[in-house]
Amino acid sequence: MIEKLYQVICDRRDHPQANSYVASLIAKGPDAILKKIGEEAAEVIIATKDLDAVKDVTNQDVDTAATASLVHEIADLTFHLLVLMAEQKIPPSAVSSELEHRFGTSGLAEKANRK
Hints:
By secondary structure, this protein is mostly helical. It has a single domain (2-114), classed as Helix Hairpins (Orthogonal Bundle), CATH 1.10.287. The protein has helices at 2-14, 21-28, 30-58, 65-87, 92-102, 107-114. Helix 1 (2-14) packs across helix 2 and helix 1 (2-14) packs across helix 4 (65-87). 12% of the residues are buried.
């Protein structure tokens, strides 16, 4: 689904229509896209805190509206990251390759290697 969505976003980038949210966002430039990513990231944080609050009250993992809200916000964030990737002409395969390169390496070790 990620690749399919990315292709639709690229099509909207390359063939902008007046009624396209993606085309309008890309036309505004990277700052507008980054602002949306920041907003969506904040909404993921809030939805996670809300879900954790539900778990604290019920003392168990639950499949609730709070979970659905978090999934919705993660999807929004992912979508806007894909818009940024399309605007910057970075295909999902580049991210996949980077993750594959890191796979099997401790996150702490990988971070230390970047310094």
